[in-house]
Specification:
The complex is a heterodimer. By secondary structure, chain A is α/β, with parallel strands linked by helices. Chain A contains 14 helices and 22 strands. Helices cover 29% and strands 24% of the residues of chain A. Chain A has a seven-stranded mixed beta sheet with strand order 11-10-12-13-15-14-20, with helices on both faces. In chain A, strands 17-19-18-21-22 form a five-stranded mixed beta sheet, with helices on both faces. In chain A, strand 4 and strand 5 form a beta hairpin. The longest helix of chain A has 15 residues. Chain A is elongated and about 95 Å long. The longest helix of chain B is centred in the first third of the chain and has 29 residues. Chain B is globular, with a radius of gyration of 20 Å. In chain B, helix 1 packs parallel to helix 11. In chain B, the strands form two sheets. In chain B, strands 2-1-3-4-8-7 form a six-stranded parallel beta sheet, sandwiched between helices. A two-stranded antiparallel ribbon of chain B has the order 5-6. Helix content of chain B is 43%, strand content 11%. Chain B is an alpha/beta fold. Chain B is built from eleven helices and eight strands. Chain B has a single domain, classed as Thiamin diphosphate (ThDP)-binding fold, Pyr/PP domains (Rossmann fold), CATH 3.40.50.970. Classes of the chains: A alpha/beta, B alpha/beta. At the A-B interface, strand 5, helix 1, helix 2, helix 5 and helix 6 of A face helix 1, strand 2, helix 5, helix 6 and helix 11 of B.
Chain lengths: 453, 338
């Protein structure tokens, strides 16, 4: 039997090339791996190695030929009978089809998200305890570490120092240094170690002293943590929580004061959570630790010390992917997350004094975004203001507005407005910092504008 | 920093049955990798394999020699020149080839491609496309082994190019600091894409790169499967009992960096010289002939391997493309019921 040797492609884009030289002639014995020819394009010259063994029976394209199309038979090889099946031969029509993107052949609808679960009912008579966001986060980690021995915490200063912001206070004392691990200042490296440990089946919590430093680890967060489940066809899981303070801090200037919400919420494979109060901080962090996916958990330094009511319920879990209506109203919808929820609520109070009833929605989870709750609200109020601490262009507010326009266009009585950080790096000077950030005043102004007041 | 002893052909007891069996196993595995890669190169040339495709031809002795010291529960992780490690680890050549062609029967259902395959049952944790990222990940696998105290070792492979990445040294630091069971296997094939080690590295002896972290290292002839296996066993023992260890495998890739690289940056004759004098498969074949193995026995292995590769190629050509419904699967795992 005989086998055709085909004109190979030097690169995915090559369509034709020159057959510069033959190293074989009819009658020659050819072995696998032997260099048989040289081909060239305008970019490169490459040696062609034989894949099949046999005796050269015919040279089909003489050396010096130009413009030989890829996959053209260039020589024929007589093979021994050792091989049962016909090797290689010509490419089948299926091969040509294979190069068309599948997406062109069939429209694939993204799966419709299931209706998000509701917050757990708080039974009547449940005691509400004042807890700071800082302690709520600590309690969530401690409870989950008691529950599951695969959960551990690693990061800079999390153990002996008790946390740069004291979020991990007392954890070392309770769980020991095997499960509360101080790392060197080496974000790229320890993030990779955390992701590797998660791939091996553990459930790490990786604390970034602030999310500003996580930019050093961006490759591991996006390329390794977010994508490996997909790239492995579902074989490699990565159950891991990355957490730490995000957003504007006070007077630390541009490198240490930045909101990364939109950055991470852009990436499929990640879930992104940004709670406001202590009850959500605790309930969502517990849900995050139990979730089998990589989670970006964005806390806020300026909220750590604030106290909120937390229901005294065993195993308080808040579902991921569900927004919360913090204040009901009929005049307009204001969306916000993290620290901005507090500003939005204050703005709503001021607006109420002017007879404008704002509905305030705390997004809580940015990916997956609970747009159902937002859209339902806008259908009622017909007006939208989005608030975020980060930059506006391509931001969370832009996404919320796009979804509202897509799903409730006919209900809108005014163009949506975004309140966000001014489009500049965070300034250091106190006055400039203040005017660069969203404020109650800016929210009130935007709210009045969409109400044409 | 001991150098691995070279195991010359004459240095072995010619009549050792154990040697012969071991060598036959190595030979079959190395030949499978070479024939598989040659076929992959052909399918690439035919347009059946797309994108980037980095062949392992020339480096076979490393994956195969190291596999011989791997125990159940140990893990392997590497970069994008990964087909050899997958086959050595025992992954089905059909699934690997079908992943190269982007088909449903591929190991990642066609969603990973050449650089992104995995097999937990075989201890193979990828297949990673970003140079150096697997070093931190592999050190993390070792962190998990240490956390569980299960005696498992992480074999973390990277090339001479990755050896200049910053996260490699961040990982070295933590590995030694926490005595993690990891063997760093540097496959020094002398070229990081087109840039030679001499042109990219201030310290070209890569086994010394752990010195400032107190990690011992040694240089190994990566073209000699016995030398690889011996050094691997030493390194694994150290990793299990003391902590990280570095093996610098001196090797050579016969092909370009990827399929589109004609490798013209190498001096004329360098490849031919290596092929003629240091080829890992020829080297082993000579040893087998030295212990009296008959031509027919080797021929039988060749034929068997050839058929496996032909079957794999056939499967990779005929397996259907992934169903469009696969587009949205494996992005997230469902949360377990609470």
């Amino acid at each position: 039997m005989s086998v055709e040797i085909l004109m190979p492609a030097l690169s995915p884009t090559m369509e034709e090339g020159n057959l510069a030289k033959w190293h074989i002639k009819p009658g020659d014995k050819v072995e696998s791996g032997q260099v048989i020819a040289e081909i060239e394009t305008d970019k490169a010259t490459m040696e062609v190695e034989a894949v099949d063994e046999g005796i050269v029976s015919e040279i089909l394209v003489p050396e010096g030929s130009e413009g030989v199309k890829v996959n053209t038979p260039i020589a024929r090889l007589g093979t021994g009978a050792a091989n049962g099946k016909a090797p290689s031969a010509t490419p089948e029509p299926a091969a040509a089809k294979a190069s068309e993107p599948a997406a062109l052949k069939a429209e694939v609808a993204a799966p419709v998200a299931k209706a998000p679960a509701k917050d757990p009912e708080i039974p009547a008579g449940t005691r509400l305890v004042k807890v700071t966001v800082r302690d709520a986060l600590r309690d969530a980690m401690a409870e989950e570490m008691r529950r599951d021995s695969d959960v551990f915490l690693m990061g800079e200063e999390v153990a002996q120092y008790q946390g740069a912001y004291k979020v991990s206070r007392d954890l070392l004392q309770e769980f020991g240094e095997r499960r509360v691990i101080d790392t060197p200042i080496t974000e790229h490296g320890f993030t990779g170690l955390g992701v590797g440990a998660a791939m091996a089946g553990l459930k790490p919590i990786v604390e970034f002293m602030t999310w500003n430093f996580a930019m050093q680890a961006m490759d591991q967060l996006i390329n390794s943590a977010a994508k490996t489940l997909y790239m492995s066809g579902g074989q490699i899981r990565c159950s891991i929580v990355f957490r730490g303070p995000n957003g504007a801090a006070a007077r630390v200037a541009a490198q240490h004061s930045q909101d990364y919400s939109a950055w991470y919420a852009n990436v499929p494979g990640l879930k992104v959570i940004a709670p406001y109060d202590a009850a959500d901080a605790k309930g969502l962090l517990k849900a995050a630790i139990r979730d089998p996916n990589p989670i970006i958990f964005l806390e806020h330094e300026l909220l750590y010390g604030q106290e909120f009511d937390v229901p005294e319920i065993e195993d308080w879990i808040v579902p991921i992917g569900k927004a919360k209506v913090r204040r009901e109203g009929t005049s307009l919808t204001i969306t916000a997350h993290s620290r901005m929820v507090g500003l939005a609520l204050k703005a709503a109070e001021e607006l109420a004094a002017d007879g404008i009833e704002a509905e305030v929605i705390d997004l809580r989870t940015l990916r997956p975004l609970d747009h159902g709750t937002i859209v339902e609200s806008v259908k009622k109020t017909n007006r939208l203001v989005t608030v975020e601490e980060g930059w506006g262009p391509m931001g969370v507010g832009a996404e919320v507005a796009a979804r509202v326009v897509e799903h409730a266009f006919d209900y809108l009585d005014a163009p949506p407005l975004r309140v966000c950080q001014e489009d500049v790096p965070m300034p250091y000077a106190a006055n400039l910092e203040a005017i660069s950030l969203p404020s109650v005043e800016k929210i009130v102004k935007a709210a009045k504008a969409v109400c044409y007041r | 920093m001991a150098r691995a002893r070279k195991n010359g052909v004459g240095g072995q007891k010619a009549n050792s049955l154990a040697d012969k069996d071991r060598w036959l196993k190595y030979y079959r595995s190395m030949l499978l990798i070479r024939r598989f890669e040659e076929r992959a190169g052909q399918l690439y040339g035919m347009g059946l394999i797309g994108g980037f495709c980095h062949l392992y031809i020339g480096q076979e002795a490393i994956a195969v020699g190291m596999e011989s010291v791997k125990r159940a529960g140990d893990q392997i992780i590497t970069g994008y020149r990964d087909h050899g490690h997958m086959l050595a680890a025992g992954m089905d050549p059909k699934e690997v080839m079908a992943e190269l062609t982007g088909r449903a029967g591929g190991s990642s259902h066609g969603k990973g491609g050449s650089m992104h395959m995995f097999s937990v049952p075989n201890g193979f944790f990828g297949g990673h496309g970003i140079v150096g990222a697997q070093v931190s990940l592999g050190t993390g696998l070792a962190l998990a082994n240490s956390y569980r105290n299960d005696g498992a070792v992480s074999y973390t492979y990277f090339g001479d190019g990755a050896a200049n990445q910053g996260q490699v040294y961040e990982s070295f630091n933590m590995a030694e600091l926490w005595s993690l069971p990891v063997v760093y296997v540097i496959e020094n094939n002398q070229y990081a894409m087109g840039t030679s080690v001499e042109r990219s590295s201030a310290e070209t002896h890569l086994y010394r790169r752990g010195l400032s972290f107190n990690i011992p290292g040694e240089e190994v002839d990566g073209m000699d499967v016995d030398a690889v296996a011996e050094a691997g066993a030493r390194a694994a023992e150290h990793a299990r009992t003391k902590g990280p260890y570095i093996l610098e495998m001196k090797t050579y890739r016969y092909r370009g960096h990827s399929m589109s690289d004609p490798a013209k940056y190498r001096p004329q004759g360098e490849l031919e010289e290596v092929r003629k004098t240091r080829d890992p498969i020829d080297h082993l074949k000579a040893k087998l002939e030295g212990v009296g193995l008959k031509e027919e026995e080797l021929k039988a292995i060749d034929a068997e391997v050839r058929q496996i590769v032909l079957d794999a190629a056939e499967y990779a050509r005929t397996s259907p493309e992934p169903d469009p419904s696969e587009l949205y699967t494996d992005v997230y795992l469902e949360a377990a019921a609470r």
